[in-house]
Amino acid sequence: MAAPSCNSTTDWVTLGPPGLELFGKSFTAATNGTHHDCYTFSLSSAATSFGGVLEINTLFNKLDIDVTKVSLFRDSALVGEDSDPLTFSFASLLSGGAYTLMIDSIVSRDPGLWSVPVGYAGMIATTIAAPVPEPALLGLVLAGLVGVGAAAARRGKA
C-alpha cells in the first residue's frame, strides 16, 4: 500500500514506549468534505498502542462530523485500521521505527439552527510490548518443573 495521503500532518517526534499524546482538530463550514489528518511519530522499541477519538458536535448545528476510521502505517505499509474510532488498539508493533496515525473524517452540512465549528479530540498511548518467550526457554522451564516435581516425589517417599 502507498504512503498515506494527508490533508494535514503533525509531527510528535517520539511516542516512547511508554508514551501518551493528545490530539484533535476543528473544522468550519469552509472545510466541508473528507479529511485525512496525519500524526507522525517514532518508537524506540517494540510496543502496543491503544487510544480513542471523540467527535465534538453541537446539537442543532448546521455542520456535522463523522470520524470514520483510524489507520496506523509504519513507513508506507499499513499496520492496521479500525472503523470504530471511539476505541482502537494496535497490538504488537514489532519494532521501533517511523509511524503515521491517520484519522479519517467527513465534515458535512446539516439542517440546523446555527453554524459553529465541529471537530474531534483523541489520545493515543504506547506501552512496552511483553516479550514472547523463545521455545528453547519454554523447554528449559518445563524440564525444570519436571525436575522439581521428581525431587518432591522422591522426597515424599523417603
Key descriptive features of the protein:
158 residues, mainly beta, Jelly Rolls, four-stranded antiparallel beta sheet, 15% helix, elongated, transmembrane, Putative secreted protein with PEP-CTERM sorting signal, Ice-binding_C, membrane, transmembrane helix
How many runs of DSSP E, i.e. beta strands? 9
Q: Which percent band covers the strand fraction?
A: over 45%
Alpha carbon gyration radius: 23 Å
Q: Quick one: biggest sheet?
A: 5 strands, mixed
H/E element order: EEEEEEEEEH
Q: Which overall shape is indicated by the principal axes computed on the Cα atoms?
A: elongated
- The level-1 CATH class: Mainly Beta
Number of helices: 1
Protein name: Putative secreted protein with PEP-CTERM sorting signal
Keywords: Membrane, Transmembrane, Transmembrane helix
Transmembrane segments: 112-130, 136-153
InterPro entries: Ice-binding_C
Give an overview in words:
- There is one protein chain.
- The protein is mainly β and 158 residues long.
- The chain has a single domain (8-132), classed as Sandwich (Jelly Rolls).
- It is 15% helix and 54% strand.
- It has one helix at residues 135-157; strands at 8-14, 19-27, 33-43, 47-56, 63-74, 77-82, 88-93, 97-109, 118-128.
- The strands form two sheets. It has a five-stranded mixed β-sheet with strand order 1-3-8-5-6, with no helix packed on it. The chain has a four-stranded antiparallel β-sheet with strand order 2-9-4-7, with no helix packed on it.
- The chain starts with 7 loop residues before the first strand and ends with a helix.
- The mean pLDDT is 88.
